[in-house]
Design a protein that fits this description.
The chain is of the alpha/beta class. About 35% of the residues lie in helices and about 15% in strands. The protein contains 9 helices and 8 strands. Strands 1, 2, 3, 4, 5, 6, 7 and 8 form an 8-stranded mixed beta sheet that branches. Strand 4, helix 7 and strand 5 form a beta-alpha-beta unit. Helix 1 crosses helix 3 and helix 2 runs antiparallel to helix 8. It is globular. The termini are far apart.
Length: about 270
Amino acid sequence: MAKLETTQARITRIFDAAAGGKNNFLVDKDTVRHFDQAAPALTTAARAVLEFLSRVIRHLATVEDVDQFMIIGSGIPSGLSAGHGLHDMARRPTGPAPRVLYVESNPMVVTLAQATIEPFTDLVRVVEGDVREIDEVLRHHVVKTFIDWERPVAVLVLSAYSLNDDEYAHYVIKRLRHNASGGSFLGLLHTTFDGVPPELLPGIRDLLAMTLPHLAIRSKDEVAALLEGLDLMEPGLVWVPEWHPDGSELACRETPTSSGNYGAVARIP
């Protein structure tokens, strides 16, 4: 099991802190404050990301009839109200109850989720794993057996920010595509600087160098390259508030670029 690091900020804990969750430490809250001083948008961007994830899961469950999900690197957000967790969004009005498998590299998140979610349902499992070790993830006993890989599954890669080697990032997508059966879906969330005003970029880059030095930041073209060859669902690769917006008041809806993240969902042939 990975060592619990409490003195250095981690991106999933930062987003959890920004969204009002409890799966974070003082160093993560301090990082949120520093980012908001450099570019006051992180808290709103975190909400936009959570709303995007909820819409993706709800859409795949209710419109595409998906009943299996593997969510890699969400941090299992703790700022969501009871009954509105990401696994709750997978529930469908009819049909069998869905299975949701979380893969997390943060040991605190894994331990807490295993203690507070798994005991109350047979339909959610949480395993420790890192997208940077995708072969080990796919060999994990629970990953191999809890999900029926002969049937369609939605695989959501939410920790692409940790894949700072382009060749390996392409390998991860390839492995997941080939591991899933035809009719499955691959979702991708990715952080970008495309929408950051030029005058703010130096300060943000300096802050990232100090707090999250290995964070992968990609342009839209670079993110699109990771999804090359896949059939993207409408509306394609877009800012997260633009992916199937519903009638609710969405974070960053008026200024989608301030979400700082692109999102897309692709069909696996």
